[in-house]
Design goal:
215 residues, alpha+beta, 10-stranded mixed sheet, 1 helix, 30% strand, globular
Length: 215
């Protein structure tokens, strides 16, 4: 009877271990096949490799001088399907295109007043994260792209989120280099105080990197 109990316990333990291993395999396979979606700001295409392009066109957002409307940047498609009903409204907000305002940068000043593109991408890896103040990913994460943190000018009314714009930014294929304003993109700099220096450095341009989890 004691020997039977020992054999039975060992058999159950073995089955539980096998079941746990199979569950882990299924979970890992699901994570790998699921992937994640992110926006490639400042580029007309997704990074080459293990990514698929969902759509591309231009970055949209609220006007830099307006405190209402959109507080986030949007990746607008080139083939919109707008409302076809008789719906009207008088109290509204507005979405504009978004231009680069980076003339203070000696390397990228030629982009000033051009419209900034974007691409919505699906990675076939795991979850995606944008890490500010980094140019490389942490261990077990793959770099999708690296760039600079950008947002509105410090004194503008239209406060916006910080987005990671590719380090080699492009302009939209039909970009107008004239000053049309709308949403604007400026570099973000470090300001020491509550943000400790070191490890940060005052007035340095903030970098960023977009990473996908590798299993």
């Amino acid at each position: 009877m004691i020997l039977f109990s020992l054999n039975y316990t060992a058999s159950v333990d073995g089955l539980q271990s096998t079941l746990r291993n199979e569950i882990n395999k299924v979970t890992e396979s699901t994570l790998k096949s699921g992937g994640d979606v992110y926006t490639h700001w400042g580029r007309t295409s997704c990074p080459s490799g293990d990514t698929d392009t969902v759509y591309t066109w231009v970055i949209g957002g609220g006007h830099y001088s307006q405190s209402g409307s959109s507080t986030n940047y949007l990746c607008l498609p080139s083939d919109p399907q707008l409302d076809q009903t008789a719906l009207t409204a008088s109290a509204v907000g507005y979405i504009y295109g978004t231009e680069y305002q980076i003339d203070s940068s000696s390397q990228l000043s030629h982009l000033r007043d051009n419209e900034a593109p974007c691409a919505v991408c699906k990675t076939n890896a795991g979850p995606v994260i944008m890490i500010p103040a980094r140019t490389t990913c942490y261990s077990d994460w793959k770099m999708e792209y690296t760039g600079y943190l950008m947002s509105q000018y410090v004194s503008h009314s239209g406060n916006k989120e910080a987005i990671c714009v590719d380090a080699s930014p492009e302009v939209t294929l039909d970009s107008n280099g004239g000053n049309q304003d709308g949403g604007l993109l400026y570099f973000l700099l470090v300001k020491c105080g509550a943000l400790k220096c070191p490890p940060y450095v005052d007035e340095k341009v903030l970098t960023c990197v977009v990473c996908s989890k590798q299993y």
